[in-house]
Amino acid sequence: MNFSNFKRVVVLAPHTDDGEFGCGATIAKLVESGAEVYYVAFSACEQSVLPQFPKDILISEVKSATKKIDIKSTNLILHNYEVRTFNFHRQEILENLIQLRTSIKPDLIFMPALSDIHQDHHTVAQEGLRAFKFTNILCYEVPWNNLSFNTTCFSVLSESHIQKKIDALSEYKSQAHRSYANEEFIRSLARVRGVQVNEKYAEVFDVLRLVF
Fold first, then answer.
1. What is the mean pLDDT of residues 15-29?
2. pTM of the model
3. Pick the CATH number of 3-209 from 3.40.50.720, 3.30.379.10, 3.40.50.10320, 3.30.1540.20
4. Which terminus has fewer CB within 10 Å in the chain: N or C?
């Protein structure tokens, strides 16, 4: 697949930072190739922020992080759904997505896998499929939430793409305590996926829909 063919891309991130973890390096690659990339976060997880940080810290962090992977500030869309309650707001989320479909007319969607076990990720994936059922959809990998994952599409990455992903995720100071929020893990996973296709680095996706 030639990623440079995609010109209008939407990244669906249930929570701020999901998009960077799942496809941050590929986002950088797409922007580099001339794509217009939109990043949509549905929650800043105020209920889950550690007490030593301001409750709204993830809003400023996602703004800084997406800038590191070259997403325009005008292309960052933030919603305010409460974490772990998305299943109670399915219709509202679907309407948000349909509005995006109408206004942006994307030719590629990145979103969590339908098999993702986090309830918010699962809801965004299900409603994303409903809203964009006629659009190319690639599901990104979130290993700590994926009991299984179909590695059916690989994005080959350069050192600069991986470094941008690392730089972006380093902006999330409030999430640094998580076991996967570190350069060692990010590089290791990218190396594993790269080895699978005889390259140095890659990110992997489950092809949900591919129209050509």
1. 98
2. 0.97
3. 3.40.50.10320
4. C
